Amino acid sequence: MTDDLTVLGLTSAEQAAYRALIASAPVPAGDALTGLVEKGLAAVVDGVYTAVAPDIALEVLLLDRERKLREAREHIAALKVAYRKHVTRPTPTLLERVSGAAAVEQRIVQVQQAARSELRRLVRSPRPPLDIQAECRTIYEAAALTVDAPGEVRVAPVLPMEIYLLDDRLALIVLAEDSAAILQPCGLLDAYSELFERLWERSLPAAADDEAEARLLTSLLLAGLTDYAISRQLGVSARTTQRKLAALMQGLGARTRFQAGAQAALRDL
């Protein structure tokens, strides 16, 4: 939690002056006091500056900011209509093409940060960490798994595509490093949502318990990763990885990686 009131339009100096007034501490005359009076947070009584109660003054500022945010959201909705009307000529489409590696990376970041309630991701290549506010579920392709992934994480040896599902509002489908598509609500979006849920059910939890770790190691092993690559994905040393793999293969009664994969399949691991 933060005590910063900048979001309500107060400067750092005004915030410091307001807190000083509340504490009945002396505040030198200047722009900060003038700003507090203009914003309704201070009043002059008999030539003395006094603080207006925060549950009144700050509530007024908060309501004003909420009103402006509502107006901004209405303006965004109008811009969306204009965008679809003019940019998608000659025929409006539910699919927007994104071209260029920089543009694709930008859309990936924007979509993730714009999620309101839930973000669902199929990730095939390593991505830099982001501060995601919504609930997040991610299925990583084994080679792309990171140790600082947000939310719930599962892993699969191979994924059919890289996709980001933003609430139920849109999907970003990464077609190539320099090509992607943004899909608006339609039957195809519902199909991608169903695909994610099916893959989620079949993917392996990336957890620390023994069975989950065995499943994760098996997935990474079958994905063809080297011991060094596996150690990087797990965030452990190469020696620790070799010890874990040796224990896994011993538990499966396998002498080679191929035998380990065969035994894992037979045991539904």
List the helices and strands and how they pair.
Elements (H helix, E strand, L loop, with lengths): L11 H11 L8 H8 L3 E4 L2 E4 L2 H33 L8 E5 L1 H13 L4 E6 L11 E7 L10 E5 L5 E5 L3 E7 L2 E5 L3 H16 L1 E2 L4 H13 L4 H8 L3 H15 L4 H10 L3
Parallel strand pairs: 4-5, 5-6
Antiparallel strand pairs: 1-2, 3-9, 4-7, 6-10, 7-8, 8-9
Helix pairs in contact: 1-2, 7-8
Task: Describe what you observe in this structure.
This protein has 269 residues and is α+β, with helices and mostly antiparallel strands. It folds into three domains: 6-56, no CATH class; 95-205, Endonuclease, Chain A, CATH 3.30.870.10; 210-266, Arc Repressor Mutant, subunit A (Orthogonal Bundle). 47% of the residues lie in helices and 19% in strands. The protein has nine helices and ten strands. The chain has helices at 12-22, 31-38, 54-86, 101-113, 187-202, 210-222, 227-234, 238-252, 257-266, and strands at residues 42-45, 48-51, 95-99, 118-123, 135-141, 152-156, 162-166, 170-176, 179-183, 204-205. It has an eight-stranded mixed β-sheet, sandwiched between helices. A two-stranded antiparallel ribbon has the order 1-2. α7 packs across α8 (238-252).
